[in-house]
Amino acid sequence: xxxxxxxxxxxxxxxxxxxxxxxxxxxxxxxxxxxxxxxxxxxxxxxxxxxxxxxxxxxxxxxxxxxxxxxxxxxxxxxxxxxxxxxxxxxxxxxxxxxxxxxxxxxxxxxxxxxxxxxxxxxxxxxxxxxxxxxxxxxxxxxxxxxxxxxxxxxxxxxxxxxxxxxxxxxxxxxxxxxxxxxxxxxxxxxxxxxxxxxxxxxxxxxxxxxxxxxxxxxxxxxxxxxxxxxxxxxxxxxxxxxxxxxxxxxxxxxxxxxxxxxxxxxxxxxxxxxxxxxxxxxxxxxxx
Length: 289
Hints:
It contains five helices and twelve strands. By secondary structure, the protein is mainly beta. It has a domain at 18-171 and 203-248: Beta Barrel (Acetoacetate decarboxylase-like). A hairpin with a 5-residue loop joins strand 10 (170-184) and strand 11.
């Protein structure tokens, strides 16, 4: 094989993330009403829940079969429906990745967009006739698992919210993401002097969408990946879809500085880092997950 170089001419890099697309991804999209107190606790204070009394949590688990920037990989994410001012979008608490292209998917998503991504050991999406299931496992914990049956949603509200979903439909959506840089203080602890809120403009072109009834959903408690914090109050439903998703643009919404910026890291840390990074004494783990 020809050896590469750590120097690449600038013009050869113009195609990097141009476009950043996740083509022909296939899997499950699940929604439920979660606990208002838990939703408000984990949502940065600059955001408002779209429906504070009935906050909506959403998860997707997909096989990204043809990304433009990596080999195929599996991905799952958990989010809340919220708004910043007049901008309504989803706020991702965490995304998990596995598979051959997962490292490139993680690095490109975190570095270019600010997505709170981590690597995990196993993601599975399976379809068998009218039944489908998905699971995510990390550090020995099954942080998410779901089973669905194609047909009707659990709640009629989903019929309203997903009424246009189907072959040929294009959805334009917003993700509310934070980008930041950190600096060390004289005593060694890290501060975040500036935090930039950006609008991640996402476009999804649907090839298929099949409504589904969630028959079971479980989230195992985890110190590092607490998806279970957004407990299920009422299942709304799911969809099984093949679609292509791409980034239309990333634009600034706001910038926070000083204590307001620094305090936001309390909301962002667990989606990006494990508690092992906080241990000042002994930390050891045996075995391979």
